[in-house]
Amino acid sequence: MVEHLLAKEGVAGSNPVFRSIFLVKWGVAAATLLGGSRLGDAGRNAIRVLNETQGTVLAEQGRVADHLWSRFWGLMGRRSLPEGEALLIIPCSSVHTAFMRFPIDVVFLDVEDRVVKVVSELKPFRIAMGMKGARRVLELPAGTAGRARLEQGDRLIIGPAGDAA
Fold first, then answer.
1. Which end of the chain is more exposed for a tag (fewer CB within 10 A), N or C?
2. DSSP result, the chain
């Protein structure tokens, strides 16, 4: 099936990069047709993130990327990540900012939502690796982690958006 599509579009036998881009294009179209989206079901995935240790709010309105396409796309293609928003990627122990247009704060979390590492203001086209135990990543607008005094060992509470804690 894939080779047939590649041949039909004149991509067969061409550069591997072009083949990859073509396959991603078709994969996104297929995922959309099958009911998927970049960030999944917005209602089901709306979250609020609190730092229980510091008593601060990190994000009032966040989204969860917990399936193939939402994790693949992440924040790529967006012009910004507004204050008060976040993206939680599950599972995840490293991130890249390829094809992003803005820096972000990256927070690596363990299975109990304790901070294992904070990377502040990760610029576009960079990579960040978590430490041992990192299982999820919270992406925040650049500068949020510093303003919230987020530190290794802090425990976060991630719950449905709109819940008062």
1. N
2. -HHHHHHHTT-TTS-HHHHHHHHHHHHHHHHHHTT--SS--TTTT-EEEEETTTTEEEEEEEEEE-SHHHHHHTTTT-S---TTEEEEESS-SEEE-TT-SS-EEEEEE-TT-BEEEEEEEEPTT-EEE--TT--EEEEEETTHHHHTT--TT-BEEEEETT---
Mean pLDDT of the chain: 82
Query: Position of tokens 């591997």?
Result: 16
Q: What is the CA radius of gyration of the chain?
A: 18
pLDDT digits (tens, 9 = 90+) for 107-147: 999 999 999 999 999 999 999 999 999 999 999 999 999 99
Tokens of 82: 């507004």
Is the per-residue pLDDT at 39 higher than 50? Answer: no
Both structure tokens of 90: 């599950």
Whether the per-residue pLDDT at 32 is higher than 50: the answer is: no
